[in-house]
Amino acid sequence: MRARMWGGLVVLLALGVVGCKAGRTDAREERPAYLDFRQVVAAAKDKVFPAVVYVKCLQESHELGRKMSREVSASGVIISPAGEVLTNWHVVERAVEVRCLLYDGRAMEAAVVGSDKDTDLALIQLKVPSESPPRGRQTSRSVEPAGEAAGPPLPYAALGDSDALREGDFVMAMGAPWGLSRSVSIGIVACHRRFLPEHSQYSLWLQTDASISPGNSGGPLINTAGEIVGINTLGALVGGDMGFAVPSVTIRHIVNQIRQYGKVNWSWTGLQLQPLKDFDKNIYFEGYEGVIVAETDPESPARHAGIQGRDRILRIGGRPVTAMTDEDLPAIRLALALLPKYQPVAIDLLRNGQPLTVELEPCEKGKVEGEQLDCPRWDFTVREINRFDNPDLFFYREKGVFVFGVKQPGNAAEAGLQTSDILVRIDGREVTTLDEVRDIHKAALDGLPATHRILLTVLRAGLMRQVVLDFARDYSKE
């Protein structure tokens, strides 16, 4: 029955309709052409499917209190004849090895060109083996861009316009779910402007009911024209009827930045924004222009510029901005994040109904997460405090390190050390950097077995605590 239903579904393609004069009909006049929906799906799939790659990464992990390696599988899509592959940041995060399997069976290593946590996007470059050297000439094996490679040219897919999508439009999700062979699922755009603030400040999302499962991450979401309109990123583990993709309008910004800088050079202003009609908080401001300043971050460019909470920003660098609802905020945040760094920009605002212009000088955002360190025998891992990744810890200590993971079982766990404990002093020495912790850790291990206890002063939920760590026992040998 389902086959008959799909067989009867057709799509009208506007190939040109010739109008007829009033009162006249002509059987020879051109009429709208109808195509079977299966042909539309097949044509779109054939354009992109060969460019989908199966990605395997070997990642380093510190969450469990020790340095570990884990293998993750995901998807990607080739977007240029040079072998650039678009995938997710969380796929290549802390990857020490990236391998890709192409549609034609070729397997290649890949290098991470750059990635961005804020939008969960990454660009990797296939290492395509070059042609063998002439006989008699000795040289080491090399890798070259795809344009100079031996073998058939790499297939690639083009980016489309996600802004042209509307609810109800057909889309297809491609990838390698659950580590299986490539697959394609079909659905519709459920929402073309979904706001997910916990996942991205700078982008809205495409919501689709096309099945997106673990392993689909990094694969393309395509339209019926065979163009990439999104990168699959989030999916429902149960039901499989709600997935989310980063739209191509965001992808273009990120890819251009990564190609140029190897990362996204976000600017930071420290502005926390609120829409004029905030339904979630049940707060509604008067007027239909501008965006409200909810607050400014401490020691931020916005605070130094004198911008205050409840100010209404009307123009940024002369360009009008308005956020009526939450869905309008990412575009304004993106515009702020792309402002030139260390160059004053005029901010026109209203304060208590009076117009005011201030100069804001954005600075570089920098890292959005801290580096990590493994402390064997102590049985815990340490991470740098980062303003954006750990705002709750940053409130207590702007520069410092904290316990990222505690091994179970292990010496740190036995001592009562907990994750998110801020390390203030170790063996009487104040610590604020990973290098300082590394030096103390090395000295402590060099002192074994004569000395196997050390005193740590930690800050836990704002309260100082003393912890005696006994590391005489070697849990790695048990």
Keywords for this entry:
disordered N terminus, alpha+beta, Pdz3 Domain
3D architecture notes:
- This protein is an alpha+beta fold and 478 residues long.
- The protein folds into 3 domains: 39-133 and 143-264, Thrombin, subunit H (Beta Barrel); 267-364, Roll (Pdz3 Domain); 372-477, Roll (Pdz3 Domain), CATH 2.30.42.60.
- The chain has 9 helices and 33 strands.
- Strands 27, 28, 29, 30, 31, 32 and 33 form a 7-stranded antiparallel sheet that branches. A 6-stranded antiparallel β-barrel has the order 3-4-5-8-7-6.
- Strand 3 (52-61) and strand 4 (68-78) form a beta hairpin.
- Class by SSE composition: alpha+beta
Low-confidence stretches: 1-29, 132-148
- Work out the number of β strands: 33
End-to-end separation: 60 Å
CATH fold label of the largest domain? Thrombin, subunit H
CATH structural architecture of the largest domain = Beta Barrel
Count of helix runs: 9
Largest beta-sheet characterization: 7 strands, antiparallel
- Helical fraction equals 10-25%
Shape: globular
CATH class of the largest domain: Mainly Beta
User: What is the typical, i.e. mean, pLDDT?
Assistant: 86
Q: Report strand %.
A: 35-45%
What number of domains? 3
Radius of gyration, in Å, reads 27 Å
What is the strand and helix layout of this fold?
Elements: H1 2-7, E1 10-13, E2 33-36, H2 37-48, E3 52-61, E4 68-78, E5 84-87, H3 89-92, E6 95-101, E7 107-116, E8 121-126, E9 128-129, E10 143-144, E11 170-175, E12 183-194, E13 205-208, E14 220-222, E15 228-235, E16 243-247, H4 248-261, E17 267-268, E18 271-274, E19 277-278, E20 283-284, E21 291-296, H5 301-304, E22 312-316, E23 319-320, H6 329-337, E24 345-351, E25 354-360, E26 363-364, E27 372-375, E28 380-384, H7 391-396, E29 401-406, H8 411-415, E30 422-426, E31 429-430, H9 434-446, E32 453-460, E33 463-470
Antiparallel strand pairs: 1-2, 3-4, 3-6, 4-5, 5-8, 6-7, 7-8, 9-10, 11-12, 11-14, 12-13, 13-16, 14-15, 15-16, 17-26, 18-21, 19-20, 21-22, 22-23, 22-24, 24-25, 27-28, 28-29, 29-30, 30-31, 30-32, 32-33
